[in-house]
## 1
Amino acid sequence: MPVVDPDGIEDFARLVIEQIGGTQATAAAVAESLVGADLVGHSSHGLVRLSAYTDLARAGGVDPAASPHATAAGPFTQLRGGDAFGQVTGRDAVEILIDEASTDGMSVVGIRESGHLGRIGEWAERVASEGLLFASWVNLQGGSQRIAPAGTADRRLGTNPLTQAIPTFDVLPFDLVYDGATSQVAHGKIIERDGSGEQLPSAWTITGSGEPVEKAASFESGTGALLPLGGKAAGHKGFGLAVMAELFAGIIGGGKVSTEERQAWVGNGGAFMAFDPTCFVTQERLEEQIETVTAHIRSAEPIDGSEVLLPGEPEYRTAERYRAKGLPIPELTAADLRELADELNLTDALPDGLAAGSAQQ
Ligand code: NAD
């Protein structure tokens, strides 16, 4: 697998977005977020999306030059993405949340008509790093329907992620962040296998016969559906959470929800919230609570060679490793990036490790 310098590949991604009409600020935001997702181990939301974002911009699904528009009433803000890249809308949302919640104790930002917000954990981490609690419900605005209601194999909802973050101050080297799709896996984990020909894990999907979908390509051409989180045994729980995310995001964001009429482009609506925890407990007490509960969790005896981890810890550890040793780029994504570079006359901008003639690791 090629291994690259994260800064080098971020520069390349920035040039791509600039070349398709993004301002410098937009290009920097998109590039930072995509590489950031790869760095924390979520390659499903990283550079694998760059060529799709480029296609989307060409097809009019996102406007690289657009800016979001905010309307505020006290701690409540409605943010309309206006077809801007989701990485721009996400940054605006985070800025509003931090400003408001740091001064008034709380803030709610409803988001509609946003481009793809990518890895929602990024927004959660940014808010938590300012000492604030974060919670969000996100939907796909009626597009990208992939999850089947429990007991069916019909696609009805997006993979509607739920995300929460708790700042840990000096107790842990990372903030606690739960960030996951309400399906067995994020759809991106299927996208990144498309073209590989490998068998999909059987617990991910279901078809009308009750059997799983075998290959990513088959899923991408419309066969079967993603099982809700909890799978065949307890999918009613994940599906319940997906319904709540669909409607919390729809109601607070004010945008579209899933219906027979599907939005053509991948994009997000959402309800983002931030709270200052010190409105409820002192920072000392919060640290004590985190210390107590995490020590108790870590005292559990691992079985089968596993390790006890906390939410947000896999991403923290992966980023530490990749920053030190270089960022591995999955083969299919590497091929995609080389093709994109060729198409845009940017082959000279590919970093070592991806450029033609680079040694593979
Ligand atoms: P995942 O299953 O990899 O991780 C979910 C959560 O579990 C994370 O918070 C992680 O820290 C935690 N975790 C993982 N292993 C753990 C362990 N052993 N012990 C304790 N905690 C552990 O995530 P996913 O459902 O595949 O989602 C991946 C990404 O997809 C997320 O960033 C999500 O925001 C994104 N997503 C985005 C959209 C969108 O429309 N923008 C839609 C769906 C998902």
## 2
Amino acid sequence: MSKKAISKSVIRRMPRYYRFLGELEQQGCIRISSRELSEKMGLTASQIRQDLNCFGGFGQQGYGYNVKALHEEIGSILGVNKENPTILLGAGNLGKAIATHIDFHKRGFNLIGIFDINPELSGKIIGTLEVQNTADLESFCMEHNPVTAVLCIPKASAADAANRLVSYGIKAFWNFSHYDLRIDHKNVIVENVHLGDSLLTLSYGLNSIDDTED
Ligand code: NAI
């Protein structure tokens, strides 16, 4: 099946499948049925069969899924073996946390540069990288050709920075700034992350708990 035919909702579930299958593999699990996987993941077995059929039907009747093969295949669809060169803008609290706590390599990315507009941060070390000034961004991009940018900068700077980065060859944004980036450039993709939205979903859940059920 072509990549186009995989629905967005299935793609959204793929990282979770990848994570669960990786944990199962580490625990020495060779194969798993859709029923067992569904119990672990809190999805229905038929949902799992439908989802995994999108990737070529790895399950065998009476055998289940080969954990290692399925983990590798989903990883390959997700592109975890790539080394997409990536830069991060904004070496503040969030930028530092992302640069040091996210394992980019495990997810197909290679963080090669951290930039900040504040000259006082230039030369500071975050992880293994030295913070550079945004004045050097263009020449860095011309030399190293990053394709992805992580935006940890204030909302007010996000649109301008993104447009500038697109002109330097950036094709994908992992956007943490609270600005809903809509880049009108063909082939540029944006993944907006709002941790607060996740917390609001939790809040909704709390509000929906029926106290009388205890
Ligand atoms: P911060 O103030 O500690 O760091 C922001 C950094 O960006 C500063 O070092 C500043 O000099 C730099 N900067 C500003 N304009 C820039 C530009 N054009 N190019 C490069 N660097 C630039 O702020 P913090 O706490 O790190 O947060 C950063 C942004 O992320 C804020 O806008 C905040 O609202 C947002 N945020 C988003 C979250 C989310 O879930 N999406 C969670 C937490 C923060």
